[in-house]
Write a structure and sequence with these properties.
This protein is an alpha/beta fold and 333 residues long. The chain is built from nine helices and eleven strands.
Length: 333
């Protein structure tokens, strides 16, 4: 979902530059983009259908077992893209971490913040594999700052990568607004199951006696309701303009340390507390560097308690950062 949300400012910039984007994705990511841009044409791509384990320490092993399926999905992607280029008269491709969405017939761009792919003992291998995919594209766009004040650290910065890299700066669909604070805590749930539900249950339990107003955005498109303590307001999902307002109205945001979430909070200049998805080395790394910079603290999911929110005064939060997409990027097309 994070890959879909950070495509929203790129899509808006394309519209501003008088391009006619065709949206392509699958699952909830496609549904989100369709809700944000109901007037744009959209097509479904073959799903990767990656399954995540309940125990995060087995994540890398389980992903390796799914490699044959992922490779098959990439081949199907390539076939679908070839058909779309002919049918839709496509002038160019912008692919956010879709390995097979490129073509030699039109300029193709790959969007990622991971020039280095952290995977524990297999980091060297996963990084080299990822970079091989990136080399199939004409340009690699990284949503971050090139200088030391960046947010991706070693993930998005690699000496002499051997391909054309451009840094986009902060990439977010949100803008800061001076409005009254309405919530003490905003809980933003996201990420793959079963970890999303495990975090949801953890927060409901640990924050049931919290003295203050809490808004929980579950990050699901289902209509199912859940039972929550009286100090909670629960919504399943919010569209971009509603979520922008909710974040601006909140004193503190508790969320996964996903990169798109970090970009959004940086654009809005918010205070945050992060709970990385268990087993996702990238989120753990991002949470650690933000804590080391005294921007935001973090906790492992199984160790989180309401007491850990007591040391927030030691952290400065994010400073508001400008988020704009340079329309000159599209001259490639």
């Amino acid at each position: 979902m994070g890959h879909a949300t950070r495509c929203i400012p790129i899509i808006n910039a394309l519209l501003k530059a008088n391009y006619e984007p065709v949206l392509a994705s699958d699952g909830d990511a496609l549904l989100l983009l369709q809700k944000e841009f109901p007037l744009l044409e959209s097509v479904e791509l073959p799903p990767y259908n990656i399954c995540y384990p309940k125990n995060g320490k087995y994540l890398t092993f389980k992903l390796l077992l799914q490699l044959p399926h992922i490779i098959l999905a990439i081949k199907k992607e390539r076939k679908r893209v070839s058909e779309l280029i002919e049918k839709e008269n496509i002038a160019g491709i912008i692919s956010d971490n879709r390995f097979g969405v490129y073509s030699k017939k039109v300029p193709s761009v790959y969007v990622t913040h991971q020039l280095n792919v952290l995977s524990g003992l297999t980091t060297f291998v996963t990084t080299k594999i990822h970079q091989q995919f990136i080399r199939k594209f004409d340009e690699c766009w990284i949503p971050d700052i090139e200088e030391n004040s960046n947010f991706s650290g070693d993930l998005g910065h690699y000496k002499n990568p051997g391909f054309n890299v451009k840094y986009l700066g902060i990439l977010s669909r949100f803008q800061p607004k001076e409005i009254e604070i309405n919530y003490d805590l905003l809980l933003l749930l996201s990420g793959p199951e079963p970890q999303r539900t495990l975090l949801e249950n953890k927060l409901l339990k640990e924050l049931q006696h919290f003295k203050g107003r809490i808004l929980m955005v579950r990050g699901v498109f289902s209509s199912a309701e859940i039972t929550a303590p009286g100090n909670f307001k629960i919504v399943n999902y919010l569209l971009a303009n509603e979520l922008e307002k909710a974040i601006n109205q909140s004193n503190l945001v508790i969320a996964r340390s996903g990169y798109s979430t970090i970009m959004d909070l940086a654009a809005l200049g918010k205070k945050a507390f992060f709970i990385p998805t268990p087993g996702q080395f990238e989120q753990e790394y991002l949470a650690k560097i933000l804590q080391e910079k005294l921007i935001a603290p973090f906790s492992r999911q199984d160790e989180f308690t309401a007491i850990k929110l007591g040391n927030l005064s030691d952290y400065c939060g994010f400073e508001k950062a400008n988020s704009t997409v340079d329309l000159n990027l599209f001259k490639l097309f």
